[in-house]
Design a protein that fits this description.
By secondary structure, the protein is mainly α. The protein is 55% helix and 8% strand. It has a domain at 68-144. The chain contains 5 helices and 4 strands. The chain is flat.
């Protein structure tokens, strides 16, 4: 894609292609808007949003897939990742599934992938919570349209 006389390249990011030379790169007003949102995009909310997009695009966890989890599975999984973050932060170690509340992990053991990084675990938890919020909102919309 040409931008003025320059050729724009793109970079593959966690939520798609990003132009390395975006058309608005010299637009001061746009830069100030982006600077205003920079802490959000690089902070917890941004990390959670990027992880949720990764789950959708790379893992294929679509709205239809999430809608199948009606027994609190997304909430339970989020709880487990939040507990992993707490365990790492407070005790310096990852919890085992066996050490958690009996039977709370909703899926097969191979899907349990906690990180030694508490932030990463909280990002996983947040993305799962976002998926559950979306699921509940779709459910409410569907029920109110009947």
């Amino acid at each position: 894609m040409a931008v003025g006389n320059e050729v724009s390249r793109s970079s593959k990011g966690p939520i798609g292609d990003f132009p390395l030379n975006p058309p608005w790169q010299n637009d001061e007003a746009m830069k100030s808007v982006l600077d205003m949102y920079d802490p959000v995009l690089k902070g917890g909310a941004g990390l959670i949003a990027m992880e949720r997009q990764r789950q959708i695009k790379q893992e294929g966890w679509s709205a239809e897939h999430d809608d199948e989890h009606t027994e609190g599975d997304l909430i339970k999984a989020a709880y487990c990742y939040a507990e992993a973050a707490l365990s790492v932060e407070m005790h310096g170690e990852l919890p085992t599934l066996e050490g958690m509340e009996l039977g709370i992990w909703p899926w097969e053991k191979e899907w349990w992938k906690p990180s030694p990084d508490p932030v990463r675990n909280l990002v996983f938890a947040g993305a799962l919570i976002a998926a559950e919020i979306d699921r509940l909102q779709r459910k409410d919309r569907d029920e109110s349209s009947m």
